[in-house]
């Protein structure tokens, strides 16, 4: 990423992020920008304790803006300096911690693999072996998508952003043997749509087989190749999407858990922390921060 990209990142709310880092107090700050279906933009800063190990069902593509970001991923400790990008795959466990006492700040895109799949025209999802893309190697137009995370996104910008994400993934991907088979995308999309439309309902494997016209082994294998996660995990994530919306709207955690289809609040809390690295209470507190 060039100097122009870094300088352009100054707009759109970095003042609050910098004040949080400069204050030196422990904690985190989360600020969601403008998004669209399948794309979420987030600005975050952490001082002190970071995110616990977690995983989500989206691609997470972000750039470090200040400080040193460290995270454990695929068994190794990684470091991102200002201007470095990180590319995390769906369903890959990772954490996130400051590398120094001063903390760190970053901006990130969370992108639905379904959008990437559409941009790739049905090819299996790319595999990026090294999650850290150094500043000198990351001259990507994607930087513009994170300069002003509050700008609205129309349908054309959604498509353009998805194409840029797919291009970045393919440019930094490594060949992965055995992943060139044709996917039954129409059948898989029917299953995905059924789950997304009503994540509260737990559909049986027999029902999903009937919807897809595939046996359970082919369905499980191809669903992951197409969308980066399992049908079960995809359902859990859509339940948690509902929980987040309810929490933002002021719904008590227990009520949110039950309305989203979890057995109880403790079950929802466990799934929430495994997905976002924070408890629902800590996540909500971060949103309410200065």
UniProtKB/TrEMBL annotation:
Entry keyword DNA-binding: yes
Single Gene Ontology MF annotation: DNA-binding transcription factor activity
Entries under Gene3D superfamilies matching the protein: Homeodomain-like (1.10.10.60)
Alphabetically ordered keywords of this record: DNA-binding, Transcription, Transcription regulation
Limits of the HTH araC/xylS-type domain: 189-286
Chain residue ranges for the region called Disordered: 1-20
InterPro entries: AraC-bd, AraC_XylS_family_regulators, Homeodomain-like_sf, HTH-like, HTH_AraC
Keyword DNA-binding: yes
Signal peptide range: none
Domain of life: Bacteria
PANTHER family tied to this protein: HTH-TYPE TRANSCRIPTIONAL ACTIVATOR RHAS-RELATED, TRANSCRIPTIONAL REGULATORY PROTEIN
Name this polypeptide is given: AraC family transcriptional regulator
Organism: Planobispora takensis
């Amino acid at each position: 990423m060039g100097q122009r990209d870094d300088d352009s990142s100054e707009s759109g709310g970095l003042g609050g992020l910098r004040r949080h880092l400069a204050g030196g107090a422990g904690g985190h700050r989360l600020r969601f920008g403008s998004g669209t279906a399948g794309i979420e933009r987030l600005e975050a800063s952490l001082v002190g304790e970071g995110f616990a190990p977690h995983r989500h069902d989206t691609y997470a593509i972000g750039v470090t803006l200040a400080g040193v970001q460290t995270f454990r991923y695929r068994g190794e400790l990684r470091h991102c300096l200002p201007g470095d990008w990180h590319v995390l795959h769906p369903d890959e466990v990772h954490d996130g911690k400051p590398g120094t006492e001063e903390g760190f700040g970053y901006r990130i895109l969370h992108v639905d693999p379904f959008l990437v799949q559409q941009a790739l025209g049905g090819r299996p999802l790319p595999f990026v072996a090294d999650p850290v893309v150094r500043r000198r190697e990351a001259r990507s137009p994607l930087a513009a998508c994170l300069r002003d995370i509050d700008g609205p996104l129309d349908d054309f910008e959604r498509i353009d952003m998805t194409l840029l994400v797919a291009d970045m993934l393919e440019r930094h991907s490594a060949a992965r043997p055995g992943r060139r088979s044709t996917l039954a995308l129409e059948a898989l999309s029917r299953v995905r749509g059924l789950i997304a439309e009503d994540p509260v309902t737990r559909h049986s494997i027999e029902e999903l087989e009937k919807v897809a016209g595939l046996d359970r082994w082919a369905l499980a294998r191809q669903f992951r190749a197409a969308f980066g996660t399992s049908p079960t995990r995809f359902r859990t994530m859509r339940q948690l999407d509902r929980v987040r919306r309810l929490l933002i709207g002021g719904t008590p955690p227990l009520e949110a858990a039950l309305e989203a289809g979890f057995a109880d609040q403790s079950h929802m809390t466990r799934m929430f922390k495994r997905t976002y690295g924070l408890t629902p209470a800590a996540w909500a507190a971060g949103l309410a921060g200065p």
